[in-house]
Amino acid sequence: MLSKNQIKLISSLQQKKHRFANQLFFAEGVKVIQELVKSNFELEHLYTTNEDFTDIASNKRSVISENELNKISALSTPNTCLALFKIPLESKIIESGLVVALDSIRDPGNLGTILRLCDWFGIHQLICSKETVDIYNPKVVQATMGSIARVNVNYIDLDAFLKKTKLPVFGTFMDSENIYKTTLPQEGIIVMGNEANGISENIEKLITKRLTIPRFGDLQITESLNVATATAIILSEFRRQN
Amino acid sequence: MLSKNQIKLISSLQQKKHRFANQLFFAEGVKVIQELVKSNFELEHLYTTNEDFTDIASNKRSVISENELNKISALSTPNTCLALFKIPLESKIIESGLVVALDSIRDPGNLGTILRLCDWFGIHQLICSKETVDIYNPKVVQATMGSIARVNVNYIDLDAFLKKTKLPVFGTFMDSENIYKTTLPQEGIIVMGNEANGISENIEKLITKRLTIPRFGDLQITESLNVATATAIILSEFRRQN
């Protein structure tokens, strides 16, 4: 049985200010919750409509009705379980190897997909500008499919960070060097820009190596690639070469 | 001023059966509508809240209020315009060069993103199994960003088609040949499978060349890539080599 206060708390966590105030976020579905439980995320409480997760201590696990789950879920078709986790402290930035940096990514689905790509391509560090959508947004957590547990994510002043880094800084633009014909290093920061505006002006000045994903279709068209698919192509090419 | 019947008709087009019965679909936003208008799509009627598209004949253009647009829009934040188009007859399948074939893709966003990728990589033919989400679904039309006008799309019995084709048939699986180390041809059909289940059993039997996108992260994890990002990587690699 869920109290009104619990419903109110969990629903409020759909908003960033309440996640921040309570230092809590939630995840839904067996797979994502399992990934978070077995990683370093500290479980606050699990709510489930059936007999799963019986290995979780009884004071941290409640069986609720489907109707109750509907009230706390952020999904249009709720799964069978929802879990609250503590937001961990940010770890130190791993400033080596390949690092992906996001300049104002606003769409939760894009951030989740990019995190999943980092995980696939063995990238351990994702850096987000302060304007980037919150990684603990329920839609992001859902889209990451559990990879949120395996990639280090930091929100920082991207401009200040790029000014100081000794790593090469890559960015993609429409008319630069063909990525397929460029020798790519094993270390570097790959900056991906905002969905509508691309890489912002002040960040563009800090790019040390400009790349282009060539277009093979009608060259009259100026439409760009979606940021998540562009990230997929760039990471694939860096890893193929190294 | 919109009549009740017009509102009812346009709203009904969010469902496939009504699109099919009326042979109409709709698109929203200046950019997508412009792309469709300048291509071969036949405009049925344009509804706009402002002074754009003044080059369209007055009997095909109505200025409506924002309130009216809200009633017919499929978007949570409506744009400034919505246009009805006739669903064109399917063209003959272009069975040469690179062709992408979808085996039961269900998510509209994924289909839209894949169509946009086809456009970017100069792929002129997209083949969809009958179970794949309808290309004229408003969410697909929106996600294509206009590239729906530049890629030929056919819905067919995929199994029967692949049994007859003379082109090599590619599919990606978890443990096959590393795509980066495979010499890829300029012609072939690239099959992408369903979001949850991958390529179906009967289609898998018709794959003549099995490929794998190698995972560089923790190899214990069995999580796969999202189908749209996997398509991005595969098309990028085919085009890089050719």
From TrEMBL, chains A, B:
<comment type="similarity">
    <text>Belongs to the class IV-like SAM-binding methyltransferase superfamily. RNA methyltransferase TrmH family.</text>
</comment>
<dbReference type="Pfam" id="PF00588">
    <property type="entry name" value="SpoU_methylase"/>
</dbReference>
<feature type="domain" description="MRM3-like substrate binding">
    <location>
        <begin position="5"/>
        <end position="83"/>
    </location>
</feature>
<dbReference type="InterPro" id="IPR053888">
    <property type="entry name" value="MRM3-like_sub_bind"/>
</dbReference>
<keyword id="KW-0808">Transferase</keyword>
<dbReference type="InterPro" id="IPR029026">
    <property type="entry name" value="tRNA_m1G_MTases_N"/>
</dbReference>
<dbReference type="GO" id="GO:0008173">
    <property type="term" value="F:RNA methyltransferase activity"/>
</dbReference>
<keyword id="KW-0489">Methyltransferase</keyword>
<protein>
    <submittedName>
        <fullName>RNA methyltransferase</fullName>
    </submittedName>
</protein>
<dbReference type="InterPro" id="IPR029064">
    <property type="entry name" value="Ribosomal_eL30-like_sf"/>
</dbReference>
<dbReference type="InterPro" id="IPR001537">
    <property type="entry name" value="SpoU_MeTrfase"/>
</dbReference>
<dbReference type="Pfam" id="PF22435">
    <property type="entry name" value="MRM3-like_sub_bind"/>
</dbReference>
<feature type="domain" description="tRNA/rRNA methyltransferase SpoU type">
    <location>
        <begin position="98"/>
        <end position="235"/>
    </location>
</feature>
<dbReference type="InterPro" id="IPR029028">
    <property type="entry name" value="Alpha/beta_knot_MTases"/>
</dbReference>
<dbReference type="GO" id="GO:0003723">
    <property type="term" value="F:RNA binding"/>
</dbReference>
<dbReference type="GO" id="GO:0032259">
    <property type="term" value="P:methylation"/>
</dbReference>
<dbReference type="InterPro" id="IPR051259">
    <property type="entry name" value="rRNA_Methyltransferase"/>
</dbReference>
<dbReference type="GO" id="GO:0006396">
    <property type="term" value="P:RNA processing"/>
</dbReference>
